[in-house]
Every structure is written in C-alpha cells, then in structure tokens.
Amino acid sequence: MPRTAAEETIVPEQLYILGNLVIMVAYASIMTAILVPVIRAKQLWSNKLAVTTSMIFFSCAVGHGLHAFMAIRASQDGGHGHLQPGWEWPSAAWDLFTALVGVYYWTLRRSYKVLLGGSIFTSPGEQHRISEADAREQAARNAAEKHRATLAAVVEHTDDAIIGVNLEGRVTAWNRGAERLFGYNAGSAIGQPMSIFSGDSAAADQMAMIARVRHGERVHYEARRVHRNGSPLELSINMAPIRDTVGVVTGVSVTAREISALKAAADERRADEDRAHQVQRMESLGKLAGGLAHDFNNILGIIVNYTEFAIDETADKPAVREDLEHVRAAADRAQDLTRQLQTFTRGAGGRPVDVDLTVALEDARARLEPLVGENITIVARPGPGPMIVHADPGQLQRVIEQLATNARDAMPDGGTLVLEADIAGDQARLLVSDTGTGMPPDVADRVFEPFFTTKAGKGAGMGLAAAYGMVTEAGGTIAVYSEPGVGTTFRVNLPLVKVMTAPETGTLPPSGDGRTILVVEHEPALMRAATRILTVAGYRVIAAATGPEALVVVGDRTVDALITDVVMPDMTGPRLAELLHERAPTLPVIFMSGYSSGMLDATGQLDPAAPFVEKPFTAHDLLTTVHRALHRTPSAV
C-alpha cells in the first residue's frame, strides 16, 4: 500500500544513525590508509606512531558505530532516545578508552616532531636521523650566529676604519677603528654625511665614488682626509658594494687605513734605491776615472821627465829653457787634474804638505771669479799673516772651490761671496759665506751626507761630501751655519803646524855607486826615462817590459833593488816581487803606478808599507825613493 507523507519523511533519529555510520566509515578508511603501508613495510610492531594514530581513528570509528547500533536498537524498541536503556556503560567505557589512546598519542608527539608537518610513515631509525638532521641544522644556525658575532667583534676592534654608508652618502655604521682614526664616536658620526671627515671640497668626489659602487664596482684610491682636530690624514680607501638577499646594492662598505708611515717608508726606500744607484754610478765613474788617471799619468811621466832632460841640456839657451819651463808647469797642472780625477776613486788619498792658508786663499780668489759669475761680488779677507796647515794643496783648493760653488748656487740672482781666514787658538780657520737663500735646519743637518742634494735632477750630492772627506783627511773639521733668507757660512778648521817641515830641495841623493837596479815597466818611453835617470845617477840598470821577461833577463845575476810597475800584462808587479823574494828574501822593492797608492791599498793590490813612486814622477822622486829603500834595514824590507 502506498506510504504516507509522514512515513516518507526521514526522522531525526534516522539522520543521527546515518551520520554516525558515515563518520564511522570515514574513520575506518583513514585507519586503513594508515595501516596498509605500515603493514606492507612490516613496521606494525616498530612504528608506534602510525599504530597509535590508527588506534585513534579505529576507536573513533567504533565509537560512532556503537552510537549508530544503539540508536537502531532504541528505535526498534519504540524508544524515543538514541540509546537503549542499559547501554550507557559500554559507551562511557569506550569513550574512556578513546581518551587514553589520545593521551598516549600526545606523549608520542613530544618525541616525534614530524607530527607537526611531516610524514608519519617512518621507522624509528629514520625518525632518529631526522632528529639528527634537525640537530645539525640547529648547530649550523648556532655556528652561523657565533660567526656573525665573531665577525662583528673583529670589525669593531680592527685598527682599520670600517664604515657603512648608504647610497645617499650618510654614515650607517662606524667601528672603533673609525673612532680612533677620525676622532668621532659612533653616536656623533652615524647619520652624518661623509663630508664630516673629507671636507666639503671632496664631497662631490665621494658621491662620484658611491655612484661607481652603486653599479657594482669596487673602488680603491688614496686621498687626504681630515681628523676631527683638523690635522690631515693620508689614507688608503677601499669601497665595496653592500647587497641585500636578492643582490641589489643597498649601501657601501668603506675601509680606510692611515698610510703616512707607509708612504714615508716607501719614499725612504726609493731614496735608498736612488742612493744605491748613485753609488753604482760613482763606482763606475771611479773605475773610469782611475783608469784614465793611470794612463794619463804614464803619459805625463814621459812628458815631465823628458822635459827635465831637455831643460838640463839647455842651460846655455835661456829662451829654449823658458819654453821648456812652461811645458813643465803645464805638466804640473795636468798632474793636478789627474789627482782631481782620482778623488772619484776609492782610497785616493792626497799628498799633504805644509801650506800657507793665507796664500791659498789669495790664489783661490783669481780662479773663483769666472766660476761664480759676474753678478756675484767676491770679498777676500786673508789672515793677518802666514797660517801654515798640513794638507794636500790641490785638495785644499778644491774644498774652497766647492764651497764657492755651493754659495753661487744659493745666489741665483747675485750677491756677495766672502772668503775669510783667521786664527782661533791652535786652529787656522777658513770661512766661506754667502748672502743667498739659506737653508732650513733639516737641510743644513744633512748637507755633508753623500748623495744628499736639494738640486733634484742636477746635483749628484757628492760635492760637499767630498769636501767633508778632504777636510777630515787633513785632520780638520767643517761645519755649517745657515738661516733661511739670510745666508750661509761654512767654517773649516785645520790644525796649525807648530814646526814647519823643511821643504824638500831639488838636491839629488848620493850617487848609486854602481848598484844594479832591475826596472820593469811596460811603457817603453817611461822605461827609457827611468833607465836614464838611474844611469845618470850612477846605477847599473837591467830593463824589462814584463814580469816573465824580467825573470829571464835576471837569470842568476844579483840585483840590489827592483823597481816595478804594479799593473802590467802577463804578471803583476807584486807577483814578480814574490818570485824574486824566493831567490833573494831581502831584495828591496819599489812599486810605481799611475794609480794612487791609496787606491791600490784599498783594493788590496799593494802593501801600504811598501815603497811607492806615483806617476808621473820626477828624477828627484825616483832617486830619493830608491835611496831610502836601499838604506832600510833588512827587517824593514
């Protein structure tokens, strides 16, 4: 029979039953979805998390199923409630079971962080590895944080100034190095424009640098900045871009270092290198000058001696004799020139004799006039009388000339050069003064240093150093007093000679009495001149051009003395002397050379105690040296 409208209406009890059944099926499906992979992975007894989760859904499914079953029984019995009388306790017990499972689940949750968002289908070993990974991640985060803290401490305490600047040129970070360098603390510097330590004049340049950094460029430059107290700073500055996480330039990192000391050290190194190059050039010049002087002295030796021979032969021809005297005087001047060349060689000493400083000053005046020029007036004030000093005349003249040259350079627009000589106690004093530009104290303190010069590109810095050496060699002192804008005075003090040395006369020593002299000289004309001088003086001469030849020509003969050049082809003079001393240990040896004895001593080519004749020699020089060598005691030979 047909149903009524009331019968076709679903009552609330039916809806309750249907809802519980649907929820039961849903929970059962979830439980099945969890358990099936666990069972397949054979983790039913090891995966407590998955099993407990399944039990929760299982208890919920059973609970809803129980409610539906009890509601059906109640409706069949004609009840109006959802639960049939007598079924209250099973429902309460099951709810209590569900609650206990939930409590256990939440205790597992503390150990299984994956419940917060990961997969629950993992074994305990995998869960342990996940925990280890979490621990490593946390450790990495801690290490990164510690690194950032350490880096911040390094930046804060480094000596360099490290500054953060935004793209508008305002300071955003300021370390302690910046505080020390610029004098501003962080509180007063942050937020300020960079011009606080660069000055307004450099602000535009700094913004141009920031513009370059904005485009990703790293900039390095040197610049002068200003301390808070106004003192200048020489800085080396590096600017680099600061980028955000996506690589966009958001600011500028500025690192500044004070380099005044470094620049001074670099300048000193360059100066040392320049001095080393000067030394090398001077050594080369010295070798060249020594070689030229040696060769020129050989030539002068021929000129001097043959001129004297001619003078001796022209006693009855005054006009010819006078001409020859001019030649001899010219040779003497040439000899002085070679001594000047030898001042560039190592160990080139002079020939000190007793010299009247008053006369030397008067002689110098005439030579200085063309040297200093017409726009400089020379005023000479010689001493009150003779002032005898023991010095090399040529070196003394060169000292005066060098001081006059220095005065000339200090008076480019003209002025007055004053030469004075007087006596101060037991010292003869020479004063050379000018009305030039003067020198500041730091320059005056260094004027006698080798290679120090204020004439960049012009002077070698050796003139006053050489003058200092010549004065010192003569046993004297030299000092300078100068005032900028007023002038300069050089004071040279030389010891006065209390007992004058009697000058050597031209009287020749006694005759040679037929003694035999071996003369070894590779220059033929000079060898003939020496042979002639010795022969005229009564000596017998055996001549040879080289050492090996000398050994052959001597043979077993006995000779009374050896005169030999020092530097010769095939065999040196000292080597020849050694070989002859093997035959005759007491044989007197006289060395001669165009090099100075000082230079030969300094280079180790000659014993300083050995008798020596410097070319060009005169008959008097040669005969006197031979006579002294022959009359020395054997132990002194």
From TrEMBL:
Pfam families: HATPase_c, PAS, Response_reg. Keywords: ATP-binding, Kinase, Membrane, Nucleotide-binding, Phosphoprotein, Transferase, Transmembrane, Transmembrane helix, Two-component regulatory system. The chain crosses the membrane at residues 15-37, 49-72. Its EC number is 2.7.13.3. The keyword Oxidoreductase does not apply. It is found in: Cell membrane. It catalyses: ATP + protein L-histidine = ADP + protein N-phospho-L-histidine. Residues 516-630 form the Response regulatory domain. GO terms for molecular function: ATP binding; phosphorelay sensor kinase activity. Residues 147-192 form the PAS domain. GO terms for cellular component: plasma membrane. Residues 219-271 form the PAC domain. InterPro entries: CheY-like_superfamily (IPR011006), HATPase_C_sf (IPR036890), HATPase_dom (IPR003594), His_kinase_dom (IPR005467), HisK_dim/P_dom (IPR003661), HisK_dim/P_sf (IPR036097), PAS (IPR000014), PAS-assoc_C (IPR000700). The modification 4-aspartylphosphate is found at residue 565. GO terms for biological process: regulation of DNA-templated transcription. Residues 291-498 form the Histidine kinase domain. This is histidine kinase. It comes from Paractinoplanes abujensis.
